[in-house]
Amino acid sequence: MLWLLLLCLLQASASGPTLGEIETEARSGNVRAMVDLGTAHLNGLLGVERNVSAGAEWYRAAAEKGSVAALGQVGIMVAQGIGFPQNVQQGVALMRQAAEQGSEEAMLNLGIAIKLGVAPDEPPSEANKWLAQAAAKGVAAAQGFLGICYRDDSDTSCPTNLTKAVELFEQAANAGHADSMHNLGVCFQKGTGVASDKRRAALWLARGASAGRCLLYTSDAADEEDSVDLGGGRSIKKERKGSSGKRVEAR
């Protein structure tokens, strides 16, 4: 499923502990080290050969010790069938459990999972609720995704509110969210939800490109797509296909 790329994975810091130190701490019961080691195995970081099963086991161990973040990650993996037998219903339930316990990442991932139809039994309003909660906690990816929902008039689960969309894009952009910088630039370029301002449009489009956007889009390309950067080189791209519908693509 495309939303596998929604994993909010920890990134190893060059100045952080060594692999040996993390392993020692993890085996002694340090929950944060367990999560870090699970991430290293899952993504092949810190010189560790990628081992999904080992990563899943470390996340499971951390969740059993009370890590809400790990619980949310286990939920994603269970629903996707990565490292665990696939069970979408159970995976969504675990994500919800983590979100209800305050995990911002789980709020984001649960909201997007519902929005993308991974949890068909959940009403669309639930997606908006969880995305809004994550956005209120300052999660830039949630702000960016919710901004697209408010801006995209083909998304019937989210009432069109262009002013709110711009507000959310601006919050995320000011927090350093590359794709929201781009999308804010598009709003200024086209006068969507805000007065048209070519200078500010060029500024935000350039900032988005320098902060991690793959391309500095032309005005025509900007008409056709919005995207949400999820961190770690992952993003969701929503391509408009006229009034007949939309396509959601993860990359």
Explain what you see:
It is a single chain. The chain has 251 residues and is mainly alpha-helical. The protein is 57% helix and 8% strand. It contains twelve helices and three strands. The N terminus and C terminus are likely disordered.
Fill in the keyword field for this structure.
single chain, 251 residues, mainly alpha, three-stranded antiparallel sheet, 57% helix, globular, disordered N terminus, disordered C terminus
Helix content bin: 55-70%
Overall spatial form = globular
Distance between the termini: 12 Å
Mean pLDDT: 81
Largest sheet: 3 strands, antiparallel
Let me know the number of strands.
Answer: 3
CA-based gyration radius: 19 Å
Indicate the low-confidence ranges by residue numbers: 1-15, 214-225, 228-251
Report the portion of residues in β strands.
5-15%
Count of individual helical segments:
12
The oligomerization state is single chain
Q: How would you classify the helix and strand content by structural class?
A: mainly alpha
Strand order of the largest sheet: 1-2-3
Order of helices and strands: HHHHHHHHHHHHEEE
